[in-house]
Every structure is written in C-alpha cells, then in structure tokens.
C-alpha cells in the first residue's frame, strides 16, 4: 500500500518558495501534486511525490537546507495527524508509543520504531528505508533531503508538545555527508552521518517529560481533531460527546453549550438525545474527569496544578473538592496511595 502523509505537512511551502524567488505552483506541478490541495492543506499526499518535491525545490532554488527550513515553518501543523495521540498521552513516552502505532496504520503505513537502550532512547525512521525501494533516481539527493525534512518535522512536533525542556542528545543520518552547515543549529545536538539508520536520540529520562496539553499553540490541533470526531456521524453521538470532552477540557471550555455548538445542535436537543440513551452530559463529564484524574495521579508527574488545568478546572480548590467527592481524600493522598499500590504490585510480580 502506498505510503502517505497529510498535506498539512507542506504548511509554509508557498511562503518558503516565494521568499526564495521561486514559483510554488510550478514546483508542485512538476512533482505531480495538485497546487490547490497544498494551498488548502487538505487530504493526503503520496510520500514519494513529497520526497520528489522537496528535492526539486532545493535544487531549483539553490537552497540545500530547504528541508529543514520547511520543517521549521510547520508550527502546530507538525502535530496535525496526531491529535488522538496528543489527547491520550500524559508523558512524552506515552505520546511516542501512541504515535508509532498511529503511523503504522492506514493511510500512513510508515514504519517508525521506539527503542529504549538504557540511558538512551532511539526514534528510528525505517519508513525511509522502505522509500528507497521505489524511488528511482540517479541521484541520492532526494532521500537525503527528505530525511532532513521528516526528522526536522518530528523535532518541531516534540518541541511544541513538551516545550523548552525537550532536547536531543544526537541525530543519526544515513546520508554519507552533510549538504549544508545548518544541522547543529536546527537540531541543537550533534549530527552523525553515514549511520546505519535515520534516528533521533534522546535521554531515556525525557520519556517521563509531561506533555503540555494546555499549550495555546496546540489549540489549532485540537480544533482539527474535533473536526475529525464530528465526521463519525449520528450513530456515534455518545462517542462524539466523549471525544469533545477530551478535546475541550484542557481549553476550559467543556460545557454542555460548547459541546452542543460543536455538534451543530441546540443544547436542549443534545440533552434530549443523551436522555434517550439514559445519559446526562454532566455525568459523562464527571466520569471522564474522574478516570483521567485517577490516571494522572497514579504517576509522580505532572504536578497538581497541571492536572487541575488539564481536567478543565479554573481553580485548584475545585479539583480538590472533586477529589474528595470521588475518592474521599485529597489529591496528594490519592497519589500517595496509588503509587504505594503500584510499588507493592511491582514487588509481588518480581517475587
């Protein structure tokens, strides 16, 4: 099956090419890509065509670091295909595991591996090896440039997700040689060439880094994900409501009125349709908050204030009262109990 990526990963293409005095439409047509699709950033594009496009742009514009420039211009679009992984993940490690599974499924069919090797963790892009089998060219340049672009987009995504605390230890590229002098400035890490695989290397301790779901930069991503949720149709009303709760909680906009607005119906209509299934919106919200609170509190991170914010509470005191109602204890006591239970279980499993 043809490997594909979202057209949104060409965010900034028009601006980058225009700044370099090139014609975006001409380049897109030469790579067999519909300019209108890139202009609207809709749908998916064959990975091979995007690879060809990046190479042609770099060569014709005489810009050897075009791949990294394009990656840098992504912003939140770098996470455009991973709304579900962002919402489901509390830490960088959880996000990476979810993202790897998501990329392996259609329409992407991309092989990316997360491997923990002691103090270091490798994110290896085997999909680039797969590309070599069907990109026919006399020059090795196309894949070298696309390697830089794909790893660059990945780094931008991780920086947005984890904030300033995210950093790499090294970058491995199969490319035999550097094409320009911008690598270490972009990756802020040592870059090694002629390696056996293309990979990002980070400290394994980074996997525990909390994700910044409340980061305003992620709001366009959540809005995009909401749009996908709404495509499931009438038969999945409860599913839609639940997913909208997950999306809107970190934005502190998770009300019956807001969910009804997103679904394009009056709030009384939503109430009635939920009531037909013996459900109440406030109960759905409370259940999801309790489930997520228990999940977050079962880990040493994040701090209480961040948990309160991710659950959509404007005041820490509101979260404290909810915890007392759910668990008859303060959040700190709940966390202590859950961590002790996990430690005791681990001891039993090792005996």
Automatic annotation (TrEMBL):
This is AraC family transcriptional regulator. It comes from Microbulbifer okhotskensis. It comes from the Bacteria. Keywords: DNA-binding, Transcription, Transcription regulation. One of its GO terms (cellular component) is cytosol. It holds the Pfam family Arabinose_bd. Residues 255-337 form the HTH araC/xylS-type domain. GO terms for molecular function: DNA-binding transcription factor activity; transcription cis-regulatory region binding.
């Amino acid at each position: 099956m043809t490997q594909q990526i979202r057209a949104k990963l060409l965010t900034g293409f028009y601006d980058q090419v225009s700044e370099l005095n090139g014609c975006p439409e001409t380049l897109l047509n030469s790579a067999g890509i519909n300019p209108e699709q890139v202009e609207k950033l809709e749908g998916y594009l064959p990975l091979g065509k995007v690879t060809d496009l990046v190479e042609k742009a770099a060569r014709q514009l005489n810009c050897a670091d075009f791949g990294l420039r394009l990656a840098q211009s992504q912003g939140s679009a770098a996470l455009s295909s991973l709304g579900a992984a962002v919402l489901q993940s509390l830490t960088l490690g959880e996000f990476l595991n979810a993202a790897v599974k998501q990329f392996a499924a259609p329409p992407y069919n991309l092989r990316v591996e997360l491997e923990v090797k002691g103090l270091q963790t490798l994110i290896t892009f085997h999909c680039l090896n797969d590309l070599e089998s069907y990109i026919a060219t006399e020059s090795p340049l196309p894949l070298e440039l696309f390697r830089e672009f794909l790893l660059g987009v990945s780094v931008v995504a991780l920086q947005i997700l984890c904030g300033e605390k995210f950093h790499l230890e090294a970058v491995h590229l199969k490319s035999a040689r550097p094409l320009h002098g911008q690598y270490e400035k972009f990756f802020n890490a040592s870059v090694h060439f002629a390696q056996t695989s293309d990979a990002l290397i980070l400290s394994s301790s980074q996997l525990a880094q909390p994700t910044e779901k409340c980061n305003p930069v992620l709001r366009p991503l959540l809005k995009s994900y909401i749009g996908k949720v709404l495509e499931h149709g009438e038969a999945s009303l409860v599913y839609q409501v639940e997913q909208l709760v997950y999306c809107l909680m970190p934005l502190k906009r998770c009300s019956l009125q807001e969910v009804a607005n997103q679904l394009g119906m009056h709030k009384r209509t939503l109430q009635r349709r939920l009531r037909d299934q013996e459900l109440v919106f406030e109960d759905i919200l409370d259940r999801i908050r309790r489930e997520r609170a228990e999940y977050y509190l079962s880990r040493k991170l994040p701090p209480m204030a961040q948990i309160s914010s991710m659950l959509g509470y404007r005041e820490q005191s509101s979260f404290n009262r909810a915890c007392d109602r759910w668990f008859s204890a303060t959040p700190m006591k709940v966390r202590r109990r859950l961590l002790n239970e996990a430690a005791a279980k681990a001891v039993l499993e090792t005996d």
